[in-house]
């Protein structure tokens, strides 16, 4: 197997390949052009979307050429993959705006140079397709029986599969064919849930162009407890700092389960495998390795300066406000008058933004998850929903440190 494929396998990226030996031979002959597609169904990617782009960079560093395909065209219809019901339709204006945002996020990570890595938008060839001609040229090569054999369609047949969703595989396959014709693209990479769509594109190129193409998929990442990677009780962990703050992004990685540390260091950083092994061997406390992971991933997504600030904020929070830069922590400014009168604990956590509603705040307090301390002081759980926090709990600087559960902090400053 070609060294880059071996490297991907050793780092946990390898799930399925249509012909590993054939792809290895092609890579031995010279640089292979490959692509990864992303539909702009939202304004930001989340960390689960980044798995193929880490693999993208490994392949690029090995001398191959990558295309980031933005699905401004395919996103106009729903992809049934992994969905229990039809995906929401978005306006063309929304899709164009999302496409620009997603491209910027990928560029920030990939650094497009238009030589070894570049982006294209399938809207350029899909938006103006003549449907009759498309069916005559492309649809003729697809077997309905074979399409229904793929797990994606089997699952949706149970809940109801619309005709428009049935077209998605044809369009994605056509993308592969178009990229082959325009750029000599021979390989599509992606998540393993896209296997059926990708091999359909491989088959279409073989049928139409009498050429060999390849499919390579990566595992869908779950945490050690089986939960979907990148999902929290508060929702997805987004790359957009306005949706997931850099601090909370850092904290997501800082609070992963011990069993996931090595696996995530291999997949979500570019540290050499032997260095990862060294980190795991040298870390007497798992939190040391988690902090390294959190810094590395945050630096890749948000930059080193932001990663440094997030780490300083995390150290300040876990140190009760000492040993780090408090300014990097999530903060809220509240009026002194409410503390002088006695600030109800539920209202306090709501106003600080640590809970989204009073009912959520009451549950947090009743379950022992609401902690209050002055920075540097002892953190104590408040379990009475009628409890009030007075001005005597403020530090000399007029500050109060709140914690919701184990992970979410807010530094309250009073004026």
Overview in brief:
The protein contains 19 helices and 15 strands. The strands form four sheets. Strands 1-6-5-2-3-4 form a six-stranded mixed β-sheet, sandwiched between helices. Strands 9-15-14-11-12 form a five-stranded mixed β-sheet.
CATH architecture of the largest domain: 3-Layer(aba) Sandwich
Biggest sheet, spatial arrangement of strands: 1-6-5-2-3-4
CATH class of the largest domain: Alpha Beta
Please estimate the helix content.
40-55%
Low-confidence spans: pLDDT under 50, at least 5 residues? Answer: none
- The total tally of domains equals 3
Form type: elongated
The description of the largest β-sheet is: 6 strands, mixed
What's the CATH superfamily of the largest domain, by name?
A: HUPs
* Number of contiguous helices: 19
Question: Between the first and last Cα atoms, what is the distance in angstroms?
Answer: 64 Å
Q: What is the structural class? A: alpha/beta
Radius of gyration: 25 Å
**CATH-defined topology of the largest domain:** Rossmann fold
> What share of the residues does DSSP label as strand, in percent?
5-15%
What's the overall average pLDDT, rounded? 89
Tally of strands: 15
């Amino acid at each position: 197997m070609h060294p880059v494929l071996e490297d991907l396998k050793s780092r946990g990226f390898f799930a399925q390949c249509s012909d590993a030996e054939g792809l290895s031979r092609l890579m031995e002959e010279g640089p292979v052009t490959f692509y990864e597609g992303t539909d702009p169904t939202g304004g930001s990617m989340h960390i689960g979307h980044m798995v193929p782009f880490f693999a993208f960079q490994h392949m690029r560093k090995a001398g191959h050429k990558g295309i980031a395909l933005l699905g401004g065209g395919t996103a106009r219809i729903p992809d049934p993959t992994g969905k229990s019901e039809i995906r929401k339709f978005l306006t063309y204006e929304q899709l164009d705006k999302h496409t620009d945002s997603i491209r910027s996020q990928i560029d920030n990570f990939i650094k497009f140079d238009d030589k070894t890595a570049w982006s294209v938008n399938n809207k350029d060839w899909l938006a103006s397709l003549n449907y009759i001609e498309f069916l005559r040229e492309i649809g003729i090569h697809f077997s309905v029986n074979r399409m229904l054999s793929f797990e994606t369609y089997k699952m949706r047949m149970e809940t109801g599969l619309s005709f428009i969703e049935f077209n998605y595989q044809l369009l994605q396959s056509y993308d592969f064919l178009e990229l082959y014709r325009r750029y000599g693209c021979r390989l599509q990479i992606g998540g393993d849930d896209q296997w059926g769509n990708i091999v359909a594109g491989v088959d279409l190129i073989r049928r139409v162009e009498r050429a060999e193409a390849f499919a390579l998929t990566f595992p869908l990442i779950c945490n050690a407890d089986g939960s979907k990677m990148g999902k929290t009780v508060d929702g997805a962990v987004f790359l957009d700092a306005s949706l997931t703050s850099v601090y909370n992004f850092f904290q997501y990685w800082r609070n992963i389960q011990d069993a996931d540390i090595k696996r995530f260091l291999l997949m979500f950083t570019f540290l050499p495998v032997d260095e990862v092994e060294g980190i795991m061997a040298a870390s007497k406390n798992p939190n040391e390795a988690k902090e390294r992971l959190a810094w590395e991933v945050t630096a890749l997504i948000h930059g080193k300066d932001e990663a440094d600030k997030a780490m300083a904020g995390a150290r300040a929070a876990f140190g009760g406000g000492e040993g780090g830069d408090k300014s990097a922590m999530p903060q809220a400014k509240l009026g002194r008058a409410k503390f002088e009168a006695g600030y109800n604990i539920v209202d306090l956590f709501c106003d600080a933004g640590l809970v989204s509603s009073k009912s959520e705040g009451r549950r947090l307090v009743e379950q022992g998850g609401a902690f209050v301390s002055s920075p540097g002081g002892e953190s104590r759980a408040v379990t009475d929903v009628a409890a009030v926090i007075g001005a005597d709990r403020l530090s000399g600087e007029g500050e109060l440190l709140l914690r919701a559960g184990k992970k979410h902090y807010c530094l309250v400053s009073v004026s």
